[in-house]
Amino acid sequence: MLEIRNLHASVAGKPILKGLNLSVQPGEIHAIMGPNGSGKSTLAGVLAGRDLYEVTQGEIIYKGRNLLELSAEERACEGVFLAFQYPVEIPGVSNTYFLKAALNAVRKYQGQAELDAVDFLALMKEKMQLVEMNPALLNRPVNAGFSGGEKKRNEILQMAVLNPLLSILDETDSGLDIDALRIVANGVNKLHTPDNAAIVVTHYQRLLNYIVPDFVHVLVDGRIVTSGDKELAFHLEEQGYDWVKDHADTAGQPA
Amino acid sequence: MSTEAQEIQDLTGGEYKYGFVTDIESDTVPKGLNEDVVRLISSKKEEPEWLLEWRLKAFRMWKQMEEPRWPNVKYEAIDYQDISYYSAPRMKDKPKSLDEVDPELLATYEKLGIPLREQEMLAGVAVDAVFDSVSVATTFKDKLKDMGIIFCSFSEAVREHPDLVRRYLGSVVPAADNFFAALNSAVFSDGSFVYIPKGVRCPMELSTYFRINSSETGQFERTLIVADEGAYVSYLEGCTAPIRDENQLHAAVVELVALDNAQIKYSTVQNWYPGDKDGKGGIYNFVTKRGKCAGVNSKISWTQVETGSAITWKYPSCILSGDNSVGEFYSVAVTNNMQQADTGTKMIHIGKNTRSTIVSKGISAGRSQNTYRGLVKISKQADGARNFSQCDSMLIGDTCGAHTFPYIENHNSSAQLEHEATTSKIGEDQIFYCNQRGIATEDAVNMIVNGFCKEVFRELPMEFAVEAQKLLGISLEGSVG
After folding, report:
1. Averaged pLDDT, B191-205
2. End-to-end Cα, chain B, rounded Å
3. Best of A70, A80, A88, A106 to disrupt the B interface by mutation (most B CBs within 10 Å)?
4. Which region holds residue B191: left if phi is over 0, alpha if psi is between -120 and 50, else beta?
5. How far apart are CA A5 and CA A55, in angstroms?
6. Structural domain boundaries of chain B?
7. Contact at CB, A88 and B1, closer than 8 angstroms
8. Which residues partner with B362 through β-bridges?
9. A contact residues 73-102, partner B, Cβ 8 Å cutoff
10. A15 touches chain B (CB under 8 A)
11. Residues B341 and B370: beta-carbon distance below 8 Å
12. Dmax of chain A from CA atoms?
């Protein structure tokens, strides 16, 4: 589904990603872990098509196509979804209106009929149960005055409604208490199918207690320095990232 | 990528949609302004002596006055002798019904999306269409007449209801109120007159479409709306104009009078030609709009959506004379490219327990300058007065400007005044968030801007609100890309 080969990317001329490789197949959940500043959010931003990031080398093949040639909205319509670390507020635009506009933009792109208000609300009702969201939030402006937990739930609600093929969750666990974390993770798990895939970007291991990854990759200084299964995450939690860094200095030479 | 570039090109290169000229022979007075021209206008309109005197008095005062220089706008000096002050579509006999109206004129309105026939049947809106300076068609008049409501052209009102006109003309905006109001008072051509009798609630939205057509012809509309005791009326004003290279001056005057327990709601969607991307052409819109809450418990509400004109100079205001009277001002002003707007309101509290609300939303894009200028004045005797002001500015891009000048003059210690102001920029973050959900940039900007203006759009009558949203989209096309 997704092949990232030798990806180099920079922000304002400063190299952040330095030769990243990653392969994601349908049905897989990949966790990307790493210390602050290692390039986790840059990877998420590059995949989603944020023009803040400049890809200087390498390629990203998504569903057999060159992802880098697609605009951010085209990627979204092709099923790439980013759950933001800091979802933005859009004053005056109701959550429902926003989601309906998004869903219909995607449906239109995919050659499907746009949903009318009645069908859309039915869909919303169904999906909202997934994240145990307060229905009152639907009529509030997008993310405006939402608590941290509400914002993250809202992201997962959007994910549920848009039904993406490839979801990227950027530090979705940050700022969440344990109950909110459980609810959000639960939503993600329920949305997971053999046909879609997720990349879970996180600093801490605790999210992975709830969303169990098939693979864990450790990102240090713009490169994946080691990969493994979920046990690797526990290891990291105990040993800290310095352990991998040391590991990387010796093992990372050929890359 | 190349289709996207083409798209942006198409959007930014988009020509003003309503730019066309109707070929109708015009009856135009030669350029220039002097007492003879004032007399000529008055005589062409077969006006009574008192009105001619009123005009002449205004003209003499205007000659002594200076054009205001305080607005935050820049433009080449206007040569007032290089303007023709009267233009009327030539008609041998005045039309008795729509069937007699010049078909080309009707076609013009159809292009603008206001087919009179359809409107008569479907929309429930009585339209007093002002084409250049003379009213050519008035609908629904009979129905309104049965209720005692007068809705007609200003000229007709002068003929048919001289006492009413004489009583209220200039009672809110005196002839010498300001430079442009004085000019209007001297040379006004036509406009609308509305009178709602005691206790009558006008059953439909009354509306006027203004249109400037003859080249280099100034427009000097005059509107007078009187709501008698306990009456209610909602009035809509919408404008579009054809493309012109020469700057066109428009100096209208609108006067509203609300007596005891009366209510007037005045809504404007203004979309005059703003000039091209380099600021060439476009309408100069120098308007004096003022309402007087003369009676107790009366209410006047202004709602405006301003997207057009090269220069806007406009402060729809309320004089709150009656005790417990209420004034409201809801405004969206959009400027793009080289447009300049200096707009706002004045709330003058005189009566006791008077209340006013100001909600202003300014949106600037391109290289435009958008200024909010407002005055809240609480007089000594205005015990218990309250005002709430909210002025929000939104910037699109980094070559435009937003300015806020809120003036407060308070002479009564019991007054409660609240003022909130914000300035925001449409963030890359917001646009990317929308993009990432599949929403294209243009649609995202529309959505964000419309969200920003929601509090004002809510005040507009339904069909106008829809129109206003579309207009905002058209006005900001190509501003992000």
Report:
1. 92
2. 13
3. A88
4. left
5. 12
6. 18-424
7. no
8. B333, B393
9. 73, 75-77, 81-82, 84, 87-88, 90-93, 97-99, 101-102
10. no
11. yes
12. 60
User: Which token pair is A74?
Assistant: 């085209």
The residues pairing with B260 across neighbouring beta strands, listed in sequence order, are none
Contact B447 A98 (CB under 8 A): yes
Contact (Cβ atoms closer than 8 angstroms) between residue B384 and residue B352? yes
- C-alpha to C-alpha distance for B477 and B11, rounded to whole angstroms: 6
b or e along B198-224 (b: 16 or more beta carbons within 10 Å of the residue's beta carbon)?
A: eebebebbbbbbbbbbbebbbbbbbbb
Q: Which residue among A69, A72, A106 places its CB closest to the CB of B432?
A: A72
Residues A113-170: tens digit of each pLDDT: 999 889 998 999 899 988 888 888 888 999 988 988 899 999 999 999 999 999 999 9
A54: exposed, middle or buried (Cβ count in 10 Å: 0-12, 13-18, 19+): middle
C-beta atoms of A92 and B436 within 8 A: no
Residue of A nearest to B451 (CA): A92
- Structural domains in chain A plus CATH codes: 2-251 (3.40.50.300)
Write down how long chain B is: 481
User: Is B203 in contact with B194 (CB distance < 8 Å)?
Assistant: no
Average pLDDT over residues B302-326: 94
**pLDDT per position as a tens digit, B230-282:** 999 999 887 554 445 455 788 999 999 999 999 999 998 887 777 777 877 78
* Confidence grade of residue B148 (pLDDT, cut at 50, 70, 90): very high
CB contact under 8 A, A87 and B433: yes
Of A27-41, A223-237, B151-165, B251-265, the range with the lowest mean pLDDT is A223-237
Tokens of B298: 């009366």
- Number of helices and strands (H, E) in chain A? 8, 12
**Min Cα–Cα distance to chain B from A236, Å:** 32
Q: Could you tell me the two tokens for B108?
A: 């013009």
Residue of A nearest to B457 (CA): A92
Q: Strand, coil or helix: what is B351?
A: coil
| Chain B residue with minimum CA distance to A101 | B439
Residue B76 clears pLDDT 90, i.e. is over it: no
Q: How far apart are CA A180 and CA B1, in angstroms?
A: 41
Contact B430 A77 (CB under 8 A): no
Beta strands A65-66 and A53-62: pairing type? Answer: antiparallel
- B1, A69: Cβ pair inside 8 Å? yes
CA distance A33 to B440: 32
Could you say which DSSP state residue B446 is in? H
> Pick the residue with more confidence: B309 or B323?
B323
Please state the pTM of the whole predicted model: 0.79
Q: Which of A90, A151, A158 to mutate to test the interface with B (most CBs of B within 10 A)?
A: A90
Query: Are the Cβ atoms of B437 and A93 closer than 8 angstroms?
Result: no
Task: Give residue B78's pLDDT.
Answer: 87
Containing H/E element for B312? strand B311-314
Residues of A in contact with B436 (CB under 8 A): 48-49, 72-73, 75-76, 81-82, 84
Residues of B in contact with A77 (CB under 8 A): 438
Enumerate helices (H) and strands (E) in chain B, giving the number of each. Answer: 13, 23
CA distance B31 to A213: 81
Q: What single-letter amino acid sits at A16?
A: I
Distance from CA of B432 to the nearest CA of A (A): 7
d(CA B203, CA A14) in angstroms, rounded, equals 66
Cβ distance B437 to A102 less than 8 Å, yes or no, reads yes
CA angle B358, B364, B366 (to 5 degrees): 170
Chain A environment of B452 (Cβ under 8 Å): 91-92
Q: Do B448 and A141 touch (CB under 8 A)?
A: no
